[in-house]
Write a structure and sequence with these properties.
single chain, 266 residues, alpha+beta, Creatine Amidinohydrolase, four-stranded antiparallel β-sheet, three-stranded antiparallel β-sheet, 4 helices, 15 strands, 24% strand
Amino acid sequence: MLELKNAEQIAKIQAAGRLAARCHREVASRLAPGVTTKEIDAFVEKWLQREGGYPYQKGYNGFPYSICASRNDIVCHGFPTSIPLLSGDIVTIDLVVEYKGWLADLAWTYNIGRVRPEVKALVRHTLKALRLGMEKARSGGRVGDISHAIGTYGRLSGYGVVQTLVGHGIGRQLHEAPEVPNEGSTGTGIVLEEGLVITLEPIFTLGGNDDVWLGRDGWTVRTMNGQWAAHFEHTIAITKQGPRILTTAASSLAQVSGFSSRRLRQ
């Protein structure tokens, strides 16, 4: 069953989302060649606790860290490590913030140093797919409209579109109904109703192959062929006025600019 949120509940999720966005800005300012994702993990845990939040991933179904840190060919759910980031890497930082009992989920792929043009394009197109999907997240539409926008753009751009991992409803629980796939057909799936809060998370891979495999740790998902992957995610609410992004301080889709820093900007 769908759990529709009222205005007060959406505001509480947005408070968690704004905290997540602020945390990502702090992360973006710290990511650079030589930094380790374990250092980022420790920073996020301390920063959120200081701000009154909690890194919800830590302990979730046994997950041992405060963030997922997915580097290069890791699609998602990567463990932070003590291996320094290198110029040319990409890394996705995925974090779930709990704030006063409500959750928000936000993932971003960052370029580290000087990244190859084809990798930079992968990151840019995956972010654009997120925007295209969000534009379809309107009351009266269907989940398939979102999925079709994301998947069609990814395929036409020549990328693999990971289908085994999906967006989802969110609120007091991390994974609520409905699932939001990254491929689908327009006019299919559940109707998007006012008050629905969902995450969209396109994941594209280089080379057009979307096969993935699960590592022995039971969490880390990698591309089957070793090609690199990019992953973006926002938490949004369906409203009468259109999609409302809850994991940013921006008030409209046109204002979403991402989390860059001088050390990351290329």
